Amino acid sequence: MLTKKIAIDGPSGAGKSTIAKLLAQSMGYTYIDTGAMYRAVALYCITKGVEPENSDQVEALLEDIEIDIRYENGIQQIFLLGENVSEKIRTPQMSLGASNVSKHKKVREKLTAMQRELANKYNVIMDGRDIATTVLPDSDVAIFLTADVKARAKRRYDELTAKGENVTFEEVLSDMELRDKNDSTRENSPLKQAENAILVDTTNLTLENSVLAIQNIINKKLR
User: Is 218 inside a domain boundary?
Assistant: First the structure.
């Protein structure tokens, strides 16, 4: 079966996951949050006392890591060794941890293979850091979603505080700037705009207008 593939890349906090979920629901596509998979790897490493930056120790754990993606009421859930960790991975520590484990070549190879397998089974909207450049270079539509770092940090801060997290805006901004640096300078599959990707800057756009802008791009590309 020939499937349709939509890739949405961009830095942390640009709104990729939120927008991709909404688009997937409206289009009847399967949403794949690749960042959640890296967060799950980071969670496993940290619970085992392994620093996400330590390439040798992280890669030594890979054979033990089993990640499963399931859908409950249309919402993606991430399972690590049979445990639903969808909430546990949504913390600043796991965000930075995901950025660190994603630097390691064997981690990227393992998760990229999983992501491609899913894209070959379903019509997908997949978001992450290297979807159009590495994971799905044959995507039917490629979007590079971005926004000013302070705007992205404010969105993430609002999201975390709404969940009761005790963080400051300055902490979130600092973590985001560090993650931006890690993601764009790593040796393996760095964050960058694919040649065929269309740039969408959401700094001054509402969520509704961001979704509409990307939906229009997709509709034109898939005609």
Answer: no
The CA-atom distances, in angstroms, between 113 and each of 11, 106, 164 are: 22, 11, 35
pLDDT per position as a tens digit, 51-104: 999 999 999 999 999 998 888 877 789 999 999 999 999 998 998 999 899 999
Q: Is residue 220 in some structural domain?
A: no
Number of folded domains in the chain? 1
Dihedrals phi, psi of 13, to nearest 5 degrees? 80, 10
pTM of the shown model: 0.83
Q: What angle do CA 4, 38, 135 make, to 5 degrees?
A: 30
30 touches 24 (CB < 8 A):
yes
Q: Which are the contacts of 219, defined by CB distance < 8 A and separation ≥ 6?
A: none
DSSP single-letter state for residue 12: T
Q: Which residues pair with 199 in a beta bridge?
A: 144
